Amino acid sequence: MITIDSASPVPPFEQLRGGLVDAISSGELAAGQRLPTVRRLAEDLGLAPGTVARAYRELEASGVIETRGRNGTFVSFSDDPAHRAAQQAATVFAEQIRSLRIDPDDALALAAAALRGGDPGSA
């Protein structure tokens, strides 16, 4: 969860930008994951929409996030085509697991077994 410290000498847009980068780096936000709208995130964090928009613009300029028109803003995929395809497959897998209401730890065990070439049902 990103928090903004109003007493910090670091500007709020920079705190938000850094917080989003940290969340992406740690895996808290996954490639392909949709981000909140500017207005929604501004409301959630108690910031002006322009502050959130500035952080989003800077992250987009550096390739960390991407805006897909009316579809929203998403965490970007890697520049490496193989890695990008794997990220997209992982995103689809995660969406399917959530829709099936499978425990994430069970899903990871199933994926690990499948990657090892074993019977995923035996995980």
Uncertain segments are none
* Radius of gyration, CA atoms, in whole angstroms: 17 Å
Q: Which H/E pattern describes the elements?
A: HHHEEHH
Instruction: Give the overall shape, derived from the CA principal axes.
Output: elongated
Overall SS class: mainly alpha
The percentage helix is 55-70%
In the CATH hierarchy, what is the class of the largest domain? Mainly Alpha
Number of strands: 2
Tell me the count of domains.
Answer: 2
Strand content: under 5%
* CATH superfamily caption of the largest domain: Winged helix-like DNA-binding domain superfamily/Winged helix DNA-binding domain
CATH topological fold name of the largest domain: Arc Repressor Mutant, subunit A
Tally of contiguous helical segments: 5
Supply the CATH architecture of the largest domain: Orthogonal Bundle
Q: What's the average pLDDT? A: 87
Enumerate the strands of the largest sheet in spatial order, edge to edge or round the barrel: 1-2
Characterize the biggest β-sheet.
2 strands, antiparallel
Give the N-terminus to C-terminus distance in angstroms.
Answer: 32 Å
What is the quaternary state of this protein? Answer: single chain
Organism: Microbacterium gallinarum
Keywords: DNA-binding, Transcription, Transcription regulation
Protein name: GntR family transcriptional regulator
Pfam families: GntR
